[in-house]
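R.M. (postdoc): so does anyone remember the format we settled on? I'll just put the structure tokens first.
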């Protein structure tokens, strides 16, 4: 229960911080961020339960749920686009060769609070997502070996990155798999060169994030892990 308690504590804390900023600014972005954090937490829950499941069919269902919800964990990095309308840096004219710096930075505290809240949620989501992917990789490696497990991680990273594209640009959600005809039609109508390259570069980002996470994760005892728990 240690893992679930830590997740609940973080969501509660993040929710309180988001509510404070929502009440101050009136922006529903902060409410949406809490929902995104909740969705990002689900893959690790599904992965943990799937690894503990004794029945094969139950394990398969939970792993499938993990696969469909995993894009939510890596999706929150794209929430940084909500900063694009905030002018946080600009330049003013200065005399040439005067030695003066014309760069100016925003001193609007809400803009910095917004940046830090988005960063906190995005880093949490990426971290908890990489933990679930690490557990999947370790589970598969013990049964199929390193080559197959790493190949699976690469394929899942690319598939999930396409899922991020579908969620960010086509505005579909994980539960839209319950409406497959609409989902498939929307995807087929939107397959472009941009979709391909976005999936490729985002997939590389996920793969390198996983390798970096695995590097730190395997370099310490499980009890010292960021997501250590008592099972």
């Amino acid at each position: 229960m240690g893992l679930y308690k830590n997740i609940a504590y973080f969501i509660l804390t993040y929710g309180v911080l988001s509510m404070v900023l929502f009440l101050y600014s009136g922006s529903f972005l902060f409410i949406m961020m809490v929902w995104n954090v909740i969705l990002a937490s689900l893959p690790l829950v599904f992965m943990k339960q799937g690894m503990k499941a004794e029945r094969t069919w139950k394990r398969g269902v939970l792993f499938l749920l993990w696969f469909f919800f995993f894009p939510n964990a890596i999706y929150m990095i794209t929430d940084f686009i909500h900063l694009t309308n905030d002018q946080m840096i600009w330049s003013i004219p200065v005399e040439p060769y005067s030695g003066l710096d014309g760069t100016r930075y925003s001193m609007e505290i809400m803009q910095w609070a917004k940046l830090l809240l988005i960063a906190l949620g995005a880093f949490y989501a990426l971290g908890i997502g990489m933990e679930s992917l690490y557990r999947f990789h370790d589970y598969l490696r013990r049964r199929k070996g390193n080559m197959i497990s790493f190949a699976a991680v690469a394929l899942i990273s690319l598939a999930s990155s396409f899922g991020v594209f579908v969620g960010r640009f086509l505005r579909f959600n994980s539960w839209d798999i319950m409406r497959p005809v609409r989902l498939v039609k929307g995807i087929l109508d939107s397959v472009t060169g941009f979709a391909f390259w976005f999936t490729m570069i985002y997939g590389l980002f996920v793969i390198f994030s996983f390798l970096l996470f695995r590097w730190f994760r395997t370099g310490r005892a499980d009890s010292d892990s960021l997501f250590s728990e008592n099972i």
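R.M.: ...and that's the designed sequence above, right after the tokens. Also worth knowing: DSSP finds seven helices and two strands in the chain. The chain has a mean pLDDT of 89.
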